[in-house]
Specification:
By secondary structure, this protein is α+β, with helices and mostly antiparallel strands. Among the domains are: 190 residues; 41 residues. Helix content is 19%, strand content 28%.
Length: 336
């Protein structure tokens, strides 16, 4: 999901998962995933506050460098990867996340991106020393300025390849331009503490997540995130001022049984194979029937033999005419 130069994506086995139009992401149950936070702004860093199943998993926030990204493998401070399971699984019961999902908070991945405050440009003061000379001549001895006479119809002046006539502009006319003023949002007065990944080097933007079509998708159901395997990802704590306004991106995870997906895929393959076998012989699409030598009979037309004789007669007449024409051309060539 993308908005305001911020990207939120879910990775499984190191690859981005396709996001549907309604913002849902479908992954198999009992699968570990990674949350990718990307900042496409080349000038400012962002602080991403991440929530999974309504719980804060990034403490004060994760710093995403300008033009780079951070892959969040596990909740900060737990070293346990994100793992997506069904709501009726023993792990969901163990973590107290089983039961109905009326408010759709289970399976929700939410990120709030706060941009770093813009620093004002430094004020540059330049000292200009003016030299004043007071030995001017009296005003009556100074030369008078030259006044150009007024031209009622001035010649047009050129802009590029087009001529523009200046008639209609009075000598006192002023040039006006419109501009758009952007108001900066209110920001925190005190620096906030948040987390920065140790190896958060700027990464080039690799484009939007690739969309991979999923065939034979089984029935989807809601799930929740529990603890997975160990993650060695670590963070450092720094301080940075950021804006109060944020860009909120949300993804909704839904899961399916991988065994059921394999069964559906196998059933589809069998159906396709059966259809190919049925159409490969008999009266299917690949059937080839030899001709009887009479195309009219093959088409089932009445008086097929008579029609065939008529066509043979026309063919002989055409050949005879061609031979006669060729003979006349030879005689004319001999006379010449």
């Amino acid at each position: 999901m993308y908005s305001n130069n911020c990207v939120l994506a879910v990775l499984v086995n190191g690859k981005p998962v396709n996001e549907l139009a309604n913002g849902s992401v479908n992954i198999p149950f009992d699968t570990e995933y990674v949350i990718r936070l990307r900042n496409k702004d080349k000038k400012r860093r962002v602080v991403a506050k991440v929530f999974v199943d309504g719980e804060n998993v990034a403490e004060g926030g994760v710093v995403v460098p300008a033009g780079g990204c951070v892959d969040l493998e596990a909740p900060v401070g737990t070293h346990k990867r994100f793992r997506f399971v069904s709501l009726d699984s023993p792990d969901a019961v163990d973590f107290g996340k089983n039961g109905p999902n009326v408010d759709k908070s289970k399976g929700l991945v939410e990120a709030h991106f706060h941009y770093e405050k813009q620093k004002p440009d430094p004020v540059v003061v330049t000292d200009h020393h003016h030299h004043h000379y007071h030995n001017y001549d009296p005003w009556w001895l100074r030369p008078r300025p030259y006044y150009r006479p007024m031209i009622p119809n001035p010649s047009p002046f050129l802009y590029g390849n087009s001529a523009v006539n200046s008639v209609g502009l009075s000598s006192g006319a002023k040039s006006m331009c419109s501009f758009n003023a952007s108001l900066s949002a209110k920001s925190d007065t005190s620096p906030a503490s948040f987390l920065c990944e140790e190896s958060s080097a700027a990464m080039p933007f690799l484009g939007a997540p690739t969309v991979q079509p999923q065939s034979a998708q089984p029935q989807l159901s809601d799930g929740c995130t529990v603890e997975g395997s160990y993650s060695a990802q670590t963070f450092n704590t720094i301080s940075m001022d950021y804006e109060e306004t944020s860009t909120v991106l949300k993804l909704f995870l839904q899961g399916y049984d991988p065994a059921a997906a394999r069964r559906v895929s196998t059933a589809v393959s069998r159906t396709v194979r059966k259809f190919a076998e049925e159409t490969s012989d008999g009266e299917g699409l690949d059937t080839v029937t030899p001709s009887s030598g009479n195309v009219f009979a093959d088409l089932g037309l009445p008086d097929a033999e008579l029609e065939l004789l008529k066509q043979k007669r026309l063919l002989l007449e055409k050949k005879l005419e061609e031979s006669r024409i060729k003979k006349l051309e030879q005689e004319l060539a001999a006379l010449e």
